[in-house]
From TrEMBL:
Residues 1-22 are annotated as: Disordered. Residues 1-16 have a biased composition (Basic and acidic residues). One of its GO terms (biological process) is DNA restriction-modification system. It comes from Pelobacter propionicus (strain DSM 2379 / NBRC 103807 / OttBd1). Residues 63-125 form the Restriction endonuclease type I HsdR N-terminal domain. Pfam families: HSDR_N (PF04313). This is Restriction endonuclease type I HsdR N-terminal domain-containing protein.
Amino acid sequence: MPDFKDRITRHSEHVKNAGPHCSTEETTKQALILPLLDVLGFSPYDPTKVKAEYGANLPTIKANERVDYALFVDDNPVMYIEAKSCPDRLTNHTGQLARYFNATPDVFVAAITNGREWRFFSDQKHSNIMDTTPFLTVDFENIADSDIEKLERFRYGRFNPDGMRTFAEEQTLQDSFTTTIEGCLRDPDADFVRFIACRSDACGRLTPKQIETYTPIVKKSLAEAISKVVVGGLNVPIARQIPSPPLDSPQCDSPNGDIIDPNNPKIVTTEAERRVLEIVQAILEGQADPDEIIGKDTETYFSVCYQGKNNRWLLRYYGNRGTPFAMFNIPMTQERTGQAKRAGLEVRSNNGISLTKPEHLMKLSNMFFDALEYCKDDENFRKKNGSNTADEASE
């Protein structure tokens, strides 16, 4: 890797120096593109690895249509490259490249380049159809160490079909996550401020006014945290301050924060269950008075109830299982199931939602709003055909 990094760095300097003199496509190929292929282990002098002006008798491909370069591993094409002159912009030039890519199911990477910039494409949205957006872009005039690590995946000895597909998927997710995180850092919204405040134990319940007050503080804290990470690195452990419990908070009966019901020792309210209640109260702030959202524990599950009524429960949390899960009082429709899955949460066959930690409930705010509306509607709890609802009958 050190030798590869050094060669890529030297190539980057070469691009800066030679690029302004590459005004034609052919000069760009000879001076900028082929040298990089050689660094990657695809020697342009080895026809078993690199074929120029590659043509194939494939459906949708015109007889005189050629792709500039095809890279081969073990006699199989693995990547197509479309070349442009150094001054050219790379937008709106992928038509021919896409036709070759789409006509060759075994090829799952394609690139277009002007020598200065390389854009790599795959088929993540639709199988065998080249995406319109690259999963990786590398600017050799502004090369970064992270770019060099990614280019290492394209070396001849490491060019693996399954590994490359996974790499493309991970890179797309990383870019999406990075954009989202950058947006939160530059302009944190209410959900992000609430998340930070809850995770830091700054407050059990947050009002809209508190969120407004906390927002500039969170922005300053983010800047300070980023500075510490830059100086110390990600591997430095965080010295987490554990706040003292309020004087009027219930005292724990065990070292791990459990509270045992004096009337029934089988009912043990855990720290996680108390955290569930805090999160639900925070989510529903402004929708209901916090005093109306009450936690009730049983031997089997922990309930969050509206107005303290057992039959008007919003959520039941089962924390004493291998993987804790929660169930809502409303049907898990296809839309709600999709919402949970998009949030990265597993929906079980019994319609329970797996939760590795209570904070994951913050991803399901819309479901809490729907559950609260259901509990507020008295019609849902009136006697029907001379009998109570199932929950009323069980009280």
